[in-house]
Write a structure and sequence with these properties.
single chain; mainly alpha; Growth Hormone, Chain: A; 2 domains; 16 helices; MFS; MFS_dom; membrane
Length: 383
């Protein structure tokens, strides 16, 4: 079964936007320091950016439900980062960068839930895994190409030149939403207050499981630090991370198709298990080749879980509040990423890498156990 062309268009939109974002992201800390910012200011900028994105995800989903249309939020969410690129390229002070990151992440927050809801509405139910897998694969391919383009262009254009040029793929992404994405809007409607008890038991269970699992997650920066600790040079760490992104991009679509065939619930459960195995591996690894193998296994987890969990979530949310439910999920998991990374960092510093990775593996197995409880299995039979 062929997927609707709008799903391919949304995948290309995300690819272009990630090229634009990842051309900029690796250069931002160095750029901030060149403007006189200290490490505390760098942390503040990134903290505000990620908190903004997380909080606006439920806002974007809720607004799209009220409007009865997803596309206006997509245009706003992809257009803001493109239009405000000059704020970054012309920045003369750290607060200019903070303003840009706030506007950029506001756009990301506003578009995430409406985009995922639109994917769920466009894809046939039996092809949800492929639809989300295709989207995550193209998104990750863009995240791989962006830093490579920045590295090639930096000697020719300088940092500000790269910032200016990054506006081009961002503008193309917004233009593609305008010209290539169509939907059938519903009439605007008023919605009751957003309350958890109004959603299905299966959705609430998955929200709980996802919250526990998010506490097991940590920034990928810790995986890269562990590779360095195992003896890889900085250049090889960068290469391994590039290979991870490429493997993720290539595996996402076929694994999404596998989820459609064997069941999305099984794919999500396998994701919890593989994540636990990867973290246990990093806890006990002693050689560089083991770290490389674990990163490739981590790519398998990412490709299966990132798309599979979103596709499975789409089967649990009500039609009339699809954007709100998806936005609430993204906001919860986004907010919990901060304490998750803080917990991981504290455990590593106090007790060592083995304790930190072991705790992450344990929380992942706890999430798997909660996911497999009988009530969850009953809900899963309808998927």
């Amino acid at each position: 079964m062929r997927l609707p062309k709008e799903i391919y268009a949304l995948g290309l939109v995300s690819l272009l936007m990630d090229v634009a974002s990842e051309m900029v992201y690796p250069l931002l800390p160095l750029f901030l320091v060149s403007l006189g910012a200290g490490t505390a200011a760098v942390g503040l900028v990134e903290g505000v950016a990620e908190a903004t994105a997380s909080l606006f995800k439920v806002v974007g989903g809720r607004l799209s439900d009220r409007l009865g249309a997803r596309r206006p939020l997509l245009l706003l969410g992809y257009g803001l980062p493109a239009l405000f690129r000059p704020v970054l390229a012309l920045a003369q002070s750290p607060w200019h960068v903070l303003l840009y990151r706030f506007l950029d992440r506001t756009g990301k927050g506003l578009r995430t839930a409406p985009r995922d809801a639109l994917l769920a509405e466009l894809a046939p139910r039996e092809a949800l895994g492929r639809a989300y897998g295709l989207h995550r694969g193209m998104d990750t391919l863009g995240a791989t190409l962006g830093p490579l383009l920045a590295a090639l262009l930096l000697p020719l254009l300088g940092v500000r030149g790269v910032f200016w040029l990054s506006a081009l793929p961002a503008l193309l992404a917004a233009l593609l939403v305008l010209l290539g994405v169509r939907e059938k809007p519903a009439p605007p409607k008023s919605l009751p207050p957003l309350r958890l008890r109004r959603f299905s038991p299966g959705y609430r269970r998955f929200l709980l499981v996802s919250g526990v699992f998010t506490l097991a997650l940590s920034s990928n920066a810790f995986l890269l630090l562990r590779l360095k600790e195992l003896g890889l040079s900085e250049e090889r760490v960068t290469l391994v991370y590039t290979l991870y992104n490429l493997a993720y991009a290539l595996l996402a679509y076929p694994l999404g198709g596998l989820g459609d065939r064997v069941g999305l619930r099984r794919l999500v459960g396998a994701g919890f298990l593989v994540y636990a195995l990867v973290y246990l591996g990093f806890a006990w690894a002693q050689a560089p080749w083991q770290g490389v193998g674990l990163m490739l296994l981590y790519a398998l987890y990412s490709a299966a879980f990132e798309g599979g969990s979103r596709a499975y979530l789409a089967t649990l949310v009500p039609e009339e509040e699809k954007g709100s439910a998806i936005g609430l999920y993204h906001t919860l998991t986004g907010v919990l990423l901060l304490p998750a990374s803080l917990l991981f960092g504290v455990l590593w510093q106090a007790l060592g890498a083995r304790a930190a990775f072991g705790a992450g593996a344990g929380l992942s197995l706890l999430a798997l156990l909660l996911f497999a409880l009988p009530q969850g299995l009953e809900e899963g039979r309808r998927v």
